[in-house]
Amino acid sequence: MSSLVGQRIWLVGASSGIGAALAEELHRRGVIVAVSARRAEHLRQVAQGRFATVPLDVTDRGATRRAAQDVRSALGQIDTVIWCAGYWKTFEATDWQADEFATHIEVNLLGLNNVIDATVPAMVAARSGHLVALASVAGYRGLSGGEAYAATKAAQINLLESMRASLSTKDVRVTTVCPGFVRTDMTADNSFPMPFIIDPDEAARDIADGLAADAIEIVFPRRMAVTMKIARVLPVRLWTAITARLAGSS
C-alpha cells in the first residue's frame, strides 16, 4: 500500500458531494489539494483557506487548460487529477429529451475530455502521473430512466479502460471509480428506491483507501458492487425482462 502523504492532487468537481468529501479526506491523509468547480463560493467554503481553489466550467476547453496551469502554479505539479464532476437528470425514452441528453454528453464526456486534454499530455511527457475518474455502476447495464446518464457512464468506463492500456507504456496510471448510490445534491430529488445508499464521507474513505492501495478499479458500497457485477453478466433478454418489469412498476 502506497502513502498519499505529499501527493499533489487536483480534484475537479469538488464544490459539494463526493468531491468535497474527498478533498477533506485526502487533506486529512496529508495530500496537497487543489479544488475546482463552477461554484466559486461553494469552493471557498469547502477549502476554508486550506486548498488552492480554481473556479472552472469544465465544458470550456480553453478555461480548463488555463485552470490546469493555475493549479500547477499553486502546487508545483499535478501528480494526480481526479474527475468528480458530473450531470444527472432522469428521463425515459418514452419522453425523449434531446437537450438533456446533450447536456449529459457535454458535461460527463466532453468535460472529462477537456480535463484529460489539460493534464494527461504533461503526465505522458513526464512519464509519471495518475488519472482518476468517477464513473458509476449505472454504466454497467442499461436501466429505464438512465438513458442519458448510464450511456455516458458506460462510455467513461470504456474510455478509462482503453486509456489504462495505452498509458501503461508511459508509466501513467488510470483508476476507474464506480460508486453506487451516494447521498448528494444529484440524488436528493430521486423518487425511486436507492438500495445500499451511503453518505459522501464513506464514499470518500473508500476512494482514498483504493488510491492508497494502488487500485485500478474502486467500486462501492460492496453490496451494490456485487449486485451490479452479477447484473453485468446476465443475458441481454433476461436483463431486458427484469428492467422492463421494474420500469412498469415505477
Automatic annotation (TrEMBL):
InterPro entries: NAD(P)-bd_dom_sf, SDR_fam
UniProt keyword Oxidoreductase, yes or no: yes
Keywords noted in UniProt: Oxidoreductase
Domain of life: Bacteria
Pfam families attached to this UniProt entry: adh_short
SUPFAM superfamilies: NAD(P)-binding Rossmann-fold domains
Entry similarity comment: Belongs to the short-chain dehydrogenases/reductases (SDR) family.
Protein name as it appears in the record: SDR family NAD(P)-dependent oxidoreductase
Organism: Janibacter alittae
Taxonomic lineage from the root: Bacteria, Bacillati, Actinomycetota, Actinomycetes, Micrococcales
